[in-house]
Amino acid sequence: MHEMSVAQNIIDIVLQHLPEENSQPVQVVTVKIGKMAGIVPDSLEFGFQVIASETPHLENAQLRMEFTPLIIHCPLCGKDFEINDPYFICPDCNNTNVEIKSGTELQVTEIEIDDSPQEES
Amino acid sequence: MSVITIERKVLEKNDQIAQKNREDFTANNVFTINIVSSPGSGKTSILERTIEHLKGKLNLSVIEGDVQTDNDARRISALDVPAVQIVTHGGCHLEARLVRDAMENVDLQKTQLLVIENVGNLVCPSNYDLGEAHKVVVVSTTEGDDKPIKYPNMFRNSSVLIINKIDLVPYLNCNIDELENNALQINPSLKVFKTSCTTGDGIDEWCSWLESQVLK
Predict the structure, then answer these.
(1) Best residue of B10, B124, B178, B185 to probe chain A, by most A CBs closer than 10 Å
(2) B-contacting residues of A 36-55, CB under 8 Å?
(3) Which of B2, B55, B170, B181 lies at a 20 to 30 A Cα distance from A5?
(4) What sign has the CA pseudo-torsion B179, B181, B185, B186?
(5) A110/B6 touch (CB, cutoff 8 Å), yes or no
(6) What is the CA radius of gyration of chain A?
(7) Which residue range is the domain that position A89 belongs to?
(8) Domains identified in chain A, total number
(9) What's domain B12-214's superfamily in CATH?
(10) B98, containing H or E segment
(11) What is the ipTM of this complex?
(12) Chain A, nearest residue to B95 by Cα
């Protein structure tokens, strides 16, 4: 269960990107998660909500997870293949020396901030 | 609503600290391995056998990671090898920062081989670079031959595989060849050793390879 630590890292990165003197709430945090990134989505969602709810500007932020497939590249064929099981073998030529092209990503990609004018209280 | 594009790796902070660790290891000519496995695969036993073989040939230091207790550091200290214990208090993996803090208590200048024994867990430690030269994944025959395909990340991210407890194979429903093949399908470049800490089988081969890597 390293998702709590991952969630803390996500929030730390988001805080570094908030505009200065920003008091507007973050609505959505988008992360890109590879199929083989070793992340359990429900655990990450839980960890994110727990930490965000106690973090200024992120109290109501939602986590949007975009998943990327596991794609391998065969240098011999020059082709890319999406694979479902973690057998790193070229389906065309059985070459085992393939590269992972995508599917291991774990990135914060963007945030959405509610910058509509706030009513003065 | 305004959108701010970020595009940053979530674990970049860990990677940056791991890189600093790696630079310190290189500057001091320290060869570092990070041993990972499920709980109970025999990481500490392999380390004890390794120390018995390499003591007197190489200067070793050990960083032990555990959720609780300093039992493992005491086992290593009993062999007269300096050992620093990291207790994670529930944390399921070591991070580069924890290793960096522990390094303050390791005499890098007097160390040729630094062994980091990670917390027993086949999932989380695979994502965290500690600055090591190699991740060494240990799987024991009691765990079954399908472990690699159940936990592919760890086997993909390691460069060495030790199949341990081979002396128990006659009593188990575990096919070692199948286990090795499963691991090699995930990572064909894995260097594979087969060991028993009880009989000592395979320990020579593992230690010879390790020594050759340190002295390279």
Answers:
(1) B10
(2) 36-38
(3) B2
(4) positive
(5) yes
(6) 19
(7) 3-18+25-113
(8) 1
(9) P-loop containing nucleotide triphosphate hydrolases (3.40.50.300)
(10) helix B96-103
(11) 0.86
(12) A5
